[in-house]
């Protein structure tokens, strides 16, 4: 017998569990326990741990032997606290069976309400409540949920599209409503419900071939098993994939006494956020429905009422708030809101139910929020002294900054445009895209490179993949706590919900609004921050630097030790990066001047240089090229005055620059005075089978020292001239693709020679510069101690290092990487997230060996990884001095570096 405790009780002012036991009890269970201990009214219940889920899957879907006894004991406690008995004909207790993983997975897994209703207990409950309509309403809900979740999904039945048992039963319910002209479920009478319940049971038997169980314990354990099964349901798996959550975690199951929001007009249910999750405003924010059970609010079945004045908007202004209709209960709820924030020091997302004027809390968890809200809440709570600097820095995820820096619809363009439809602002920013009507279409269109907006009546958990693929989401129904809003907010995706004017015809792939018809593929613009929909494409602008953002970043900067530089090659990029807080340039690629606008002239000269087969020919071409090289270097050094600038020597695979068209070749041959035959032969010589591992980087400098000399001269002359003008410059010369110390030495000799010449030319004794190398070849890591004898700094080029470590050609991974990720051979793309186990070890070894030779060797990274949060954390831990990334990622790197220092402090 093991002594593992599998069941944790809560309720009646005490609990076995605590909020920090989320791994074991799941988020929901841990926080129900915490609330119970705080004396907050929570219906009593018990949590079956995630270990049982793991056990269940490891042991052929069997439970641990001791579970039954533990669960029965816990149930007895619940019965005592609630003063009713499960399955008792006279005084029956009903239970909810709720899933709850470590991290919330909105709507992904299953919940069964009202378990325990059966022919034996129905009369007792009617007698107890005096409310037969309520009892039959609860019963029909149980049947609907149970048939769907337990008898169909968990049993592995795969119905045809649109023919799930849930839809068939929904359809029967709709028929009754339509026949009687009812506006909502609340209009169904006792008689209607009784007939429906009988019809449901017959239908279930007919479709699924089994009877709906009439035994309370069979219902209870059926529901528990179904919750465990839902962990491995399709939706849950695909959600975990998107969110990067491990499959091994498992879910807990919460069994809890039912309380009823559907017992009449003094009963209600609602969902709220302790602060506004879209804007971050410190205002209690929520929605509620009178005479309803919990799932009604989230499902968007009726437009929910506003919680209070602060929550009123154009859609719900005409409806009574809870504050108006039940002021005392609202006050109590408001008190609990304050209590929870003081206790958890963070914004909470809560669920509550009011049974005949009596308030019960059903859930609290840290609320998902947009990037804007995250920033505002972090800064507000810090000012309120609810959290300290460090906590505030941890409150904004680096990925959310992306969203803060995201484009928005240009207000000027908006002022001139006509609003096509209005909805609720559920997810921030702007989005322009072609409209599609199903999640599958969204995924398919996006896969072929289209930018799409997903239009749905309302979304459900089956739509997540399409929601992910779309740049924006627009629904006709649902409130701020609907599924679409919840999911979009979590992802920081532009989203508008409840735009009631939209008539969406998913089957016909048509949208009708404002007397206009839109077809699949037509373009709309969404302003998710304001909830406005526009016809066609409006101009977008970058979100302007807001002062709060700047203040937040300053706090982060005061904490981090890792410096953040940028990869930039033009004065204007450098300027942008400084605006984002870059502290230097970590990678200036000399070859950039041969690409893009203004590149024609230097490119032609470069080609002459490459194609000439004599040193003299090359020197002539290089002399012509010199002013171009120097101009960009000097201008960039000037913009970065006072900050270090790492300039990498030319590193292009030469073949990329060999002209292919006959016209180009003829022009070149003329300019070089070569015959076409000679030129073609030279091109042939330059052809390489594997150019990425060919004649590039330092190898060029070894074969053609004059190319390196030109660059040393451009850098040193620029520095000398700028210094003479009183500009402080700090150039670092970086030699790429080095594998051997001797390569580096050979180039250093050239640099020193040029240095002497330039000093003489400008009449100065010395021009300060650092001489270092890019470490991007495994051999360089392995011999870093030797290389550090010559290099004054290392900069890890982790793009090439990843390529060489994995033996993956960066340009060809499209052919197999998706499958590797799908089949989980790789957890993530190693070109995006630095692979700590391989590339990371080489980097660590390189740093360690390098610093054995030179203890204060300056070390940085300049691959794409330098702006990726997980990789930045690695760089921090590995003891690097700086990371370098593209300008737009600089704020992300700054925040990641601060968070790394908070979690893993170093000097
Ligand atoms: P989810 O994780 O999808 O939010 P929940 O377990 O929170 O699922 O259940 C969904 C809804 O069911 C809740 O919002 C709540 O309103 C209702 N519910 C759950 N347990 C109870 C209960 N014990 N009494 C009344 N309603 C409940
Ligand atoms: Mg919930
Ligand atoms: Mg490289």
The residue ranges in which pLDDT falls below 50 over 5 or more consecutive positions are none
Structural class computed from helices and strand pairing: alpha/beta
Strand content: 15-25%
Give the beta-strand count.
34
The whole-number mean of residue pLDDT values reads: 92
Kindly describe this structure.
By secondary structure, the protein is an alpha/beta fold. Helices cover 45% and strands 17% of the residues. The chain has 35 helices and 34 strands. Strands 15-25-24-17-18-19-20-16 form an eight-stranded mixed beta sheet. Strand 30, helix 28 (741-762) and strand 31 (770-775) form a beta-alpha-beta unit. It is elongated. The chain starts with 6 loop residues before the first strand and ends with a helix. The protein binds adenosine-5'-diphosphate and magnesium ion (MG) (2 copies). Adenosine-5'-diphosphate (ADP) binds next to strand 6, strand 7, strand 8, strand 12 and strand 13.
Sum up the structure in keywords:
907 residues, alpha/beta, eight-stranded mixed β-sheet, eight-stranded parallel beta barrel, binds adenosine-5'-diphosphate, binds magnesium ion
Short description:
The chain has 907 residues and is α/β, with parallel strands linked by helices. The protein is built from 35 helices and 34 strands.
Question: Would you spell out the secondary-structure blueprint of this structure?
Answer:
Blueprint (H helix, E strand, L loop, with lengths): L6 E5 L2 E2 L6 H16 L7 E4 L1 H9 L8 H16 L2 E2 L5 E2 L1 E7 L9 E5 L6 H8 L2 H22 L11 H16 L9 H19 L7 H15 L3 H10 L7 E7 L10 E6 L11 E6 L4 H5 L5 E2 L15 H4 L1 H18 L3 E8 L2 E9 L4 H13 L5 H6 L3 H7 L2 E3 L1 H6 L2 E4 L1 E4 L2 E7 L2 H9 L4 E5 L7 H6 L2 E4 L7 H9 L2 E4 L5 E3 L4 E4 L2 E4 L3 E5 L4 E4 L4 E3 L4 H13 L3 E5 L3 H9 L5 E5 L10 H12 L3 H25 L4 E5 L13 H11 L3 H11 L11 H6 L1 H20 L5 E6 L5 H22 L7 E6 L2 H5 L1 H7 L2 E4 L1 H9 L10 H6 L13 H18 L4 E4 L7 H9 L4 E4 L4 H14 L4
Parallel strand pairs: 4-5, 17-18, 18-19, 19-20, 27-28, 27-34, 28-29, 29-30, 30-31, 31-32, 32-33, 33-34
Antiparallel strand pairs: 1-2, 1-3, 3-8, 6-7, 6-8, 9-10, 9-12, 10-11, 12-13, 14-26, 15-25, 16-20, 17-24, 21-22, 22-23, 24-25
Helix pairs in contact: 4-5, 5-6, 5-7, 5-8, 6-7, 15-35, 20-35, 21-23, 22-23, 23-27, 27-28, 28-30, 30-33, 34-35
The structure holds adenosine-5'-diphosphate and magnesium ion (2 copies).
